[in-house]
Amino acid sequence: MTVLGFDELGEGIGDAWAVLRDNANRAGFDAAVPTCPGWTVRHLLAHQGMVHRWAAAVLRGIDLDVEAVEREGLVVDDPLDWLDDGAKDLLQALVDAPDDLDVRFFLRDAPPPKVAWARRQCHETTMHAVDARAAVLGRQPLASDTWIRPRLAVDGIDELLTGFLPRRSSRLRSATPRTVSVEATDTGDAWSLAISDDPVVATRLRPESPDTVLTGTAVQLYLGLWNRSNEIVCDESAESAGDFLAQWRRSVTVTWSR
What we know:
Elements: H1 6-27, H2 41-60, H3 66-75, H4 79-96, H5 113-137, H6 150-164, E1 178-184, E2 190-195, E3 201-203, E4 212-216, H7 218-225, E5 233-236, H8 244-251
Parallel strand pairs: 1-4
Antiparallel strand pairs: 1-2, 2-3, 4-5
Helix pairs in contact: 1-4, 1-5, 2-3, 2-4, 2-5, 6-7
């Protein structure tokens, strides 16, 4: 399932690229990025430019020395022009890819590879554009500080919950099984997470008697579940009471890897 079609995902990449570029320029390359501790804006641009080039290489079936590419991004004279080159090449690679593209993809429950890579890069670029916005603000952004539409947010929530969390590498676990409901108050979308010692089982429905309910608008949930904001409301039953959001922030950390 994807909420967004291929063309919308491409538009999402373009929108996020523009926001990332503008906010990086406004913040300055040496500014700290509150949502990525230890990073400056230059690190952010080097990382995102590397990921765009890596994804374009995967789409074309080409091996890429990603460490060398990221090092280049850290020392180029104009990181914004360098970012632009990578983003343009990624969009061209997506346009050129055949609909029946046969390349690897690493998430569960994913659409066909061409769409899956567009989706992954849409949300990758969107989250790092949020990071650049945080560098300008000097804090985590609120949903109202962003340009993100609910439809895109729902798609990004779905990718995280049904694609990333069920992987064996995901660290969200519970010795005592619990059910979590994730509910978007403005769009009506809902997901159920069954959390145990095994990988999370995620389904696209509202569970009947959840132990924990996470609510917010679609954009609030999108930012909060990707650990970019703190506007999610967490309601826990007496039997399961605990700081689930703190556990989430410790356990659900999506980091780049080949």
